[in-house]
Amino acid sequence: MCRRLIPSWRAPRSWTLGAAGLLLGLLTIFSSFPAAAAWGPLYLEHSVASPPSQDWLKDVPERPGASKRKVAVFVIQGDDVYQPVRAAVVRALRRQGLNVTATLQPVDSPAQYREMSSTLKVGAYVDGDVTGEGPRQSVHIRVRSGVTGQNVAAVNFSGPTSKIVGAITRTLWTRVGPATVRACSGAARSHRHEREPLRIEAGTPLDDDSIGVRGT
Questions:
Q1: Is the residue at 132 inside a domain?
Q2: Within a domain: 59
Q3: At 64, is the pLDDT very low, low, confident or very high (cuts 50, 70, 90)?
Q4: Are the beta carbons of 195 and 76 closer than 8 angstroms?
Q5: CATH value at residue 90
């Protein structure tokens, strides 16, 4: 009895390995889609740093019964684009109950500062400048009286921006607070005198009958 032999066919080994690699690649790609969809927005949210809040630039409405001491904080020359040094100054003063505005612009002379103080009821002005970079930064902050238009206090800070901001937060008020309070108190007295009506002491009225008239 003769057996019929059927030749068997086997795929080359290279084809088998290639098909297995392709299948594994497709599985990897498709299985990664849900993970990308889930983690993509979260990753982007945390990888892109958002700019710091600039709410401190807005004037805070005065509360009834709050301190009438008003201070203007001008732009600090050389500060970073988001003004971290100026922001720290504004917040440090507001924590002490002062009415702080960051919307005014500096003027050119003591006389103009006095006029601004009289018109807008500003007791003190704060300005300053930043020099250097990185750990060699220096910040010079000045307080100006609204009554005289002259500087009444100054303070220096040094180091990287984060260190300077922390030092302003902790120590600015203890170093320039007394001078700022005196400037605001002096301005308040000056403004109060300006509002008082002018009184003229005319003396004792004279009676017409008591005045002798000499005839001609």
A1: yes
A2: yes
A3: low
A4: no
A5: 3.40.50.10070
Question: How many folded domains does the chain comprise?
Answer: 1
- Does this model's pTM top 0.70? My answer is no
Which of 42-51, 53-62, 73-82 is modeled with the greatest confidence? 73-82
Which residues, in sequence order, are bridge partners of residue 140? 129, 156
Neighbours of 72 (CB within 10 A): 24
Q: List the one residue out of 66, 94, 112, 85 whose CA is nearest residue 167.
A: 85
Task: For residue 178, give its domain range.
Answer: 55-188
As a three-state string, the secondary structure of 2-69 is CCCCCCCCCCCHHHHHHHHHHHHHHHHHHHHHHHHHHHHHHHHHHHCCCCCCCHHHCCCCCCCCCCCC
The answer to whether 100 touches 90, Cβ cutoff 8 Å, is yes
